[in-house]
């Protein structure tokens, strides 16, 4: 018998049940993923011409004795030039950011001769799917996915243009939305974040690690995070800026399922 390792996180999540009323809601950064984060991103990648495959391993033979093993599967989407890929992680063995499981891991490499990713970015459930999709559209549009085209100021300029506030103490490295609920910051990268920078391997335990962009939503001080996104130190700033621009956008998004932690903070209008 075979069973998913994480039965609560299906390999390809289904669309929310029909019959639920739809709303245009805002702000986007508190609107969650409508429980469609896989579908939203996968549809975007399909539209960009990326191919997908399912990797299955850990099968248990019916006549084997002993402890039952489980089926572990991963959905992998690969760009036509094979320089960039996106992996749906919840169906396998996710690791955690801010006590939330990673849903999507997106990576890129400099050329086909390099077997390892030059950088990776990670997104948990309830990151707005529009922001992940816009990050991928920007990534797909680049000829060289690991070459930076802008500095860190591009990220902060983008969110500031949408009304976010620069941090008083770190105006060149951090910003928050006007309600101080969602944040984006250039800081030390959390453990286990993969990156092609060789300094990752030489940093000592008592030394500060490499810096990369981190974003998160904390509905109330000390409350569990709604979502977390983490970008390795080598992720080009202009790609992070594409994510930040979409995340902080004032345009409403269509939702049927609202996060419990933020639904009272959302402005909503029925979608006719």
Task: Note down, in words, how this protein is organized.
Mean pLDDT is 85; it is low at 1-17. Strand 9 (165-166) and strand 10 form a beta hairpin. The protein is of the alpha+beta class. A ten-stranded antiparallel beta sheet has the order 2-3-4-7-8-13-12-11-10-9, with helices on one face. Strands 14-1-15 form a three-stranded antiparallel beta sheet, with no helix packed on it. The N and C termini lie far apart (46 Å). It has helices at residues 37-47, 129-140, 153-161, 199-202, 237-247, and strands at 23-26, 51-57, 72-78, 84-88, 96-97, 100-101, 104-108, 119-123, 165-166, 174-176, 182-188, 211-217, 227-231, 253-255, 267-270.
